[in-house]
Design the sequence.
DNA sequence: TTTATTGTTCTACGATTATCGAACTAATCT
DNA sequence: AGATTAGTTCGATAATCGTAGAACAATAAA
């Protein structure tokens, strides 16, 4: 069974988190996972890039400590480490996701 | 008199802001400017890198819309565009700066 | 006018990053 | 057992990034 390494809370850094969220592909991905409010398989989320590129981005998000990956058969189930991030960097993830959501709405106007 | 181009509020992007803040040198710099609570000259803030590197970083912060630069004689006076950023991305800058400050305190423990 | 100060730009380098197609791996389905 | 599915890794490319020393530019001080 494939096992993924996730950083402990101590290993998560603010600049690492900001860096991971500063890429539009990754920010959009995290938004979609957040909106789903439950574990999503990798492929459940539409992506504008190749599968290999998406694997790369998901690895960046995992290594930054933003997502948790749970293997489930041939799928990888993704969830946000919201609680740990909120405890470590209060308000950062939530405010970023809210702003990203507002942008989405504004751009659809 | 040297004039600096600053992006308008419309031109400021969330990923641009996150990218600019994801570098430790720039995050530290923005923290120092925030703590000062008034315009600082470039050189008033200690930096761990060469002057030319710092000029580069300051340009990135300006182009991301995080800081405003006002030439003042041979100096450049730096201020945070806090209000505009708060209006556009509520809570993002403040929560990031608070977390950065907490890290600073924790690391001194 | 010359010198000093502050900060910028130029140029270059090494490292990192995002991208993708091809090939691969592990689990599940038939 | 073979085929399918989901996702990963490999290897390559091009672009971006952070770094710095040297040279420069604008302003102020002497």
Sequence:
């Amino acid at each position: 069974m494939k096992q993924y390494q996730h950083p402990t809370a101590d290993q998560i850094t603010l600049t690492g988190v900001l860096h991971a969220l500063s890429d539009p592909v990754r920010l959009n991905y995290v938004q979609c996972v957040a909106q789903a409010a439950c574990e999503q398989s990798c492929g459940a989320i539409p992506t504008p890039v190749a599968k290999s590129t998406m694997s790369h981005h998901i690895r960046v998000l995992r290594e930054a400590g933003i997502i948790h990956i749970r293997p489930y058969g041939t799928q990888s189930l993704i969830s946000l480490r919201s609680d740990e991030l909120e405890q470590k960097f209060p308000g950062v993830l939530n405010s970023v996701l809210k702003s990203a959501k507002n942008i989405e709405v504004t751009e659809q106007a």
Notes: The interface with chain A takes residues 14-16, 18-19, 21-24, 27, 88-92, 94-96, 98-100, 103 of chain B (CB under 8 Å). Chain B has one domain: 9-104. The beta strands of chain B are 40-41, 67-72, 75-80. Residues 92-108 of chain B form the longest helix (17 residues).
